[in-house]
Design goal:
One of its GO terms (molecular function) is DNA binding. This protein is mostly helical. Helices cover about 70% and strands about 0% of the residues. It has six helices and no strands. The longest helix is centred in the C-terminal third of the chain and has 42 residues. About 20% of the residues are buried.
Length: about 120
């Protein structure tokens, strides 16, 4: 069992999806939502409605309570390699978010520099 009591709803959703071997696109399709919606749920930028949580729990084989709180029936991890792969996928996702954050910071810094140079010329 994955211990996810300290994780977020999005983290638990991602972990359960990874443990079940279902892609984001497949899960989004089964739920009838856009992949971007599922991505936002997994990144904790949005939360699914309670009826969707029940659907997600059923598809992923976990309890809705586990998705919400980390307590209850979570995904079974029979093989350490599956857990390791889920962690690698999560690390890759975090690395991409880190790179995107860096790009956003650099862009904002350039905008500030441009604004300041225009302001100084006045």
């Amino acid at each position: 069992m994955i211990d996810a009591s300290d994780d977020t709803l999005g983290g638990r959703l991602s972990a359960a999806r990874d443990a079940s071997g279902i892609s984001q696109a497949d899960l989004a399709n089964r739920l009838g939502v856009r992949r971007e919606t599922l991505t936002a749920w997994e990144a904790d930028r949005a939360e699914p409605r309670s009826s969707r949580l029940i659907d997600i729990a059923g598809i992923l084989g976990v309890s809705p309570m586990w998705l919400m709180t980390g307590n209850g029936l979570g995904p079974a991890v029979d093989d350490e390699s599956l857990l390791l792969e889920a962690m690698r996928v999560e690390l890759a996702r975090l690395n991409e978010l880190h790179r995107e954050t860096g790009r956003l910071i650099d862009g904002l810094a350039r905008q500030i520099e441009r604004f300041e140079s225009v302001r100084l010329r006045r």
